[in-house]
Design goal:
Number of strands: 0
Pfam family, one: AzlC
Structural class: mainly alpha
Radius of gyration: 19 Å
Organism: Rhodovulum adriaticum (Rhodopseudomonas adriatica)
Helix content: over 70%
Largest sheet: none
Strand content: under 5%
Number of domains: 2
Keywords: Cell membrane, Membrane, Transmembrane, Transmembrane helix, Transport
Family: Belongs to the AzlC family.
Main location: membrane
Order of helices and strands: HHHHHHHHHHHH
């Protein structure tokens, strides 16, 4: 494999990952602010971002900790929010499953929503990519995203209190997920799962500690799987 081809794949990944900085920066700053407001010290805020590196789960856990939810509920909810990572991993296995263990471990650690979204789309569109090119592309996407997540979390934790509320940093959370989820709604099963998750999430909002989200997630997966099986039988 020519080194130039692998290098080209890497820089293509960097270019494809760079636009996500528009949401990563305010998203990370917002977590730094929320974490410090919840009473976490600087080391704890940064530990969250470095060890968990999953924005949605981090926000969920901090919010529930602020509400004095039981530790078991906090852990269960954060894990449920991050169950999508297991599905991401299974989806990428056909493309990078033959890589050495240490490379797969790095991919797993840096597997965030944005990495998966552009990586999977690229691999589906370019089935002729080699394993080396796929890995280079993924690490290219990671390069502008993950280090900036750490840096801007630190900025938010240190100076977030000085950011005017008019900046409305919280816009980054829904915009990020809308931008990633909307293009993926390509089949009836996807649409059904998304619809059920929204309906159940709203209907069960009264449940304590946001446990309604757990029920909504399970319900959405069941409905999506059943719709896919039904369509398969019809075909």
């Amino acid at each position: 494999m020519p080194a130039s081809t692998v290098k080209s794949a890497y820089w293509t990944g960097v270019r494809h990952g760079a636009p996500f900085l528009l949401v990563i920066v305010p998203f990370a700053v917002l977590f730094g602010v929320v974490g410090t407001e919840a009473g976490l010290n600087l080391a704890q805020v940064m530990g969250f971002s470095v060890l968990v590196i999953a924005g949605a789960a981090q926000f969920t856990a901090v919010q529930m900790m602020s509400d004095n939810a039981p530790t078991l509920i906090v852990l269960a909810t954060a894990l449920a929010v991050n169950l999508r990572m297991a599905m991401y991993s299974a989806s990428l296995t056909p493309y990078v499953g033959d890589a050495p263990v240490w490379k797969r471990a790095l991919v797993a650690y840096f597997l965030v929503d944005q990495t998966y979204a552009v990586g999977h789309a690229r691999f589906e569109a370019r089935p002729d990519m080699t394993l080396a090119e796929r890995l280079a592309y993924l690490f290219g996407v990671i390069t502008p995203i993950c280090p900036m997540w750490y840096v801007m979390t630190l900025v938010g934790a240190l100076v977030g209190q000085e950011i005017p509320p008019e900046f409305a940093l919280d816009f980054a959370v829904p915009i990020t997920f809308l931008a990633m989820v909307a293009p993926a709604l390509r089949t009836a099963a996807h649409v059904a799962a998304a619809g059920v998750s929204v309906v159940l999430g709203l209907a069960l909002a009264f449940m304590p500690y946001n446990t309604g989200l757990l029920v909504a997630a399970v319900g959405a997966m069941v409905v999506g799987a059943q719709v896919e099986l039904w369509l398969g039988r019809r075909a």
